[in-house]
Structures are given as C-alpha cells and as structure tokens.
Amino acid sequence: MKLRDYLRDKYIFIILQILAIAFIAYMLFTFRLNLYAILFIVTILVGADIAVLLGEYIQKQRFYKVLIKCLDSLDQKCLIAELIDKPSFAEGIVLYDVLKESSKSMNDQIGLYKHASEEYREYIETWVHEIKTPIAASKLILENNMNTSSKSVAEEVTKIEAFVEQALFYSKSNTVEKDYIIKECNLNTVVKSCVKKHSKALIESQTSLAFEGLDCIVYTDVKWIDFILGQIIVNSMKYKKETLHLKFYARELSNSVILSIKDNGVGIQEKDLPYVFEKGFTGFNGRNFAKSTGIGLYLCKKLCDKMGLQISISSVEKEGTVVQIAFPKSKMVIFET
Amino acid sequence: MAKIFIIEDDRIIRTELCNLLSRYGYDCEVSDQFETIVETALQSNSQLILLDVNLPYFDGYHVCREIRKQSSVPIIIVTSRDSELDELMSMNLGADDFIVKPYNTQILLARIASVLRRSVGNEPTNTVIYQDVCLDISKSIVSFHDKEAELSKNEMRILHLLMKNREHIISRNDIMNDLWQSDEFVDDNTLTVNINRLRKKLEEIGVHDFLVTKRGQGYMIG
Lengths: 337, 222
Known about the structure:
The complex is a heterodimer of chains A (337) and B (222).
Chain A: H1 3-9, H2 11-30, H3 35-73, H4 80-83, H5 90-144, H6 148-172, E1 183-186, H7 187-197, H8 199-204, E2 207-212, E3 217-220, H9 222-238, E4 244-252, E5 256-263, H10 283-289, H11 296-307, E6 310-316, E7 320-328
Parallel strand pairs in A: 2-4
Antiparallel strand pairs in A: 1-3, 4-5, 5-7, 6-7
Helix pairs in contact in A: 2-3, 5-6, 7-9, 9-11
Chain B: E1 3-7, H1 11-23, E2 27-30, H2 37-43, E3 48-52, H3 60-70, E4 75-79, H4 84-92, E5 97-100, H5 105-120, E6 127-130, E7 133-136, E8 141-144, E9 147-150, H6 153-164, H7 172-180, H8 188-204, E10 211-214, E11 218-221
C-alpha cells in the first residue's frame, strides 16, 4: 500500500479537515486574534491531523506488507490465514476473521473432495482386482478352446487387460509412494520379461528385436518400470509401419544408466513432440490412428517423475522414435538395506 | 507325471486351469471344501500346490503357513493382488513363486515347470518318443534307429513343442512365442531358417516327412 493510495482513500477526511481548519483560522482572524496565535493553532491542528494519518498509515502498511509478503512466499496461497498475526486495528481484524473463516470453509471443502476422490480411487483399485478374475478365467477358457474365433477374442481380451492395467496405474499414479519398492535389478531381466509379457502382440506385429548392452544394474521399482516399458512397446506397435524393428540398448554414464528404446515406426511430427507427455494429447498420429487416448505417455512421464527417472523422447518423422529413460546409478535412491 | 493341487475358489478358473494343466501333461486335483483345504491338499500327495490368496474361510496366507508347518511341498501363489507387500508376504511364508492374475498361461506353465524342476530334480520325462523318433532333451539330441543328430537350442525347442503337441497344428506364431519365452527372440525369417535346418537334420538321420507344413496354418507332426 502506497502512501498516495492511502491518502486518496482519506480524501474526504482531508478535505473536510482543511476546510475546518481554514474556517477556524478565518473565524479567529475575524476575532482579530494575533496572527502568530492563529498560525500556532493552525500548525497544532494540522500537525495533529498529520500525526493521526501517518500513524494509521504506518500501522496498516505494516500489516498489509507482511500479508503480501507471506502470500508471495506461499506455495499454497490458501494457507495465508494460518500465517498472519491478528492485527490491532478494527478493519484489519474484520479482514483477519474473514480470511480465517473462508480458509476454514475451504479446508472443509477440500477435505470433502479429498475424501471423495480417495474413496473413488479405492473403489477403482478394488474394481480392477475384481475384474482380473473374470479376465483370467476368460483367458484360460480361450486358451483351452483354441480356434480361429477364440484367437481373435483372446486378442481383444488382451487389450481389455491392458486397459484395465492402465486404469489401475492411473489411479495409483498420485500415490506412487504408497506402493513402491526400489530394488537393485538387472536391466536385461526387466526388459526381457516385459517383452515376453507382450510376446503375442509383438509376434503378431512381425517384430524383430535387438538387445544391446543391457547387462547393467539399476535401482528402480520393477513393477512400475515394467508398466512404463509396456506402454512404450505398445506405442511402437500402434504406430508401426509394415514391419517393426525394436531395439533396446543401454549406455552407462558416470552416474546414470540410459535405456533407449528405438523403433522404426511412423515417428512423431516435430510440432507435436513437445506435447507428447501431456495428458490427453494425441497429435497428428492420434488423429490418423484413431486409437490414441493420450494417456499412455502422460502416465509414463508422471510415474518417471515420481520415481526420479528422466524420460525423454526424440523422433524423426517417418523414420522412427527413440524413447530414453535415465536411471540414477546412485545408491542414494535405495530405501531398503 | 507331476501332480498339482489347485486351491482356487473361482469355479471357472479352477476347472479351466485343470484343463490347461492336464493338456500339458500334469495330473490335477482340486477341492471346493475350503474349511478342510489344508488337510485335503496335504493328503493329495501332490508335487506342487497352486494357491489363490482370496479364499473363503481362511486366506491363502493362512493356508500357506499351515501347509508349511507340515510339508515342504512347493507352493506357487497365484493372486490378483499385486502389491510388493503381497509378494513379500508370500515369500516370507515360504511360497516358492508368486504369479499375478491375469497371467500369461505360457509364463504360468514355465514357472510351474521351473519350480518342479528345482524340487523334483530332473524332469521325469527327459525323452520324447514318437514313431521311433527319439528326442533326448537333456542332451539336445534327436535319434532315429541307430543314427543321431545334435540339435541347436532353438531346433530342440521347436521339435520338442511339436512332439509334445503331436497331431495338432502349431502356428508359426505359437512356435515363436514358445521360443521367446526362453529368451530366444527370433523373428519370422530366423524361424524359417531354424525349421529348414531342423528338417535337414531329420533327413540326415533318415526321418522323412516327419515335420509337415500346413500352408497358412503352421506345422505339425504326425
């Protein structure tokens, strides 16, 4: 709050005071009082006014300055009411009470929604586990009665399974830390078990695979990284040209291991590249391949962020895409002994 | 032939799992009396127990603990709960392996085979014989009358798969899938080469028209 703004707020008071003092001075002048006496009285009156105004200004200015400073330094602006002291002037107390009241009401609201979303998340997770039983049963039935039509149904069931898994990971993605164990694992094992998991679809896509230099140790959560790799593999199959060449290779740097997954698919347009990790972004390929949801890569990025991995994507249109994931080598990330 | 006891409360999964395992040459036993499931499982004298976690009366962990008190029979836990905690708990209770539903059946079979191999020692059937063609799996040698030929790992797996499923057509994709499960990620061309080499080796030892191509469908023996 600037002094000028404050004075502008007080302009009626100031004008009235000036008029009143001028009137008093005029009256005293008509009473033929000594000019020095008049000047003396006027000075006292003006001085008193200035003192009152200045005092009030300083008090308010100090309060608002602290308020704004607190607000600026806060990540969550809604917590401002918790940080300020109760002011000593009436106007400030009203403001203080209003802030307190409104933040309390907002906290109640947030609590309500938090509870609701938590309940919803729990429901989704139970639902996913429930649905796994009929999916497992269907797969077994199909496996035991293989013919051409059951084969295509099996493919569809596999897709259902993938979507269900994605839903589970999506609902868990905000609370990764609750279900997260960092372990020492061999990149080779992780990659190959993920490839095996998608073996049927990969073979169907006539994939030729290559592995290079994967024999290194990284520290990560196997289940989450398996999901991330799965999403990348599924993307490669979705956006492939006639035959798919997938190459997994790793490079060890001084303090990290970089896993690259390279395909020879349709690639990503340069203008789409910066947005591929955004939720719901499907881009040019998404429009042409109809089945894009814009969730897969968004989830990959989110999970990588939560786990302290760096994920990046580079692509040349019509030539292919490379996804890189950087695992820290430092044992600092291990929580278990 | 190894005997497997399946503890699973979902009727459909139970029967289908039974069918699947029987097709792959295992003996299966089940029960739906879950109050006495521990005794039944132990009395069945099985070489392996497949155990679901969510069960009526007692959960799978309790069952696992009770079985471990009396027997060291291998236990594979099969569950739709997939948290690390569940896995940790299973392993701590003495389970030998932990598989998450819905599982890839090939992986389930592979895990079962590997647990059995560890516990029973060598697989009881080390040779597969059909029409005088004898495949020795441990030595990776195929023999016919008095001639024999050495097979590569891939050729051995292909022949083994086809001989196990004799008189059924196995598609190229299924063969590849089988090879992929053993870390041999062959593509279509490599498979053709492998099949041709296998044929040549069979012919060298005097086996002709054993491995039949079914155009557009795959291969079969018989």
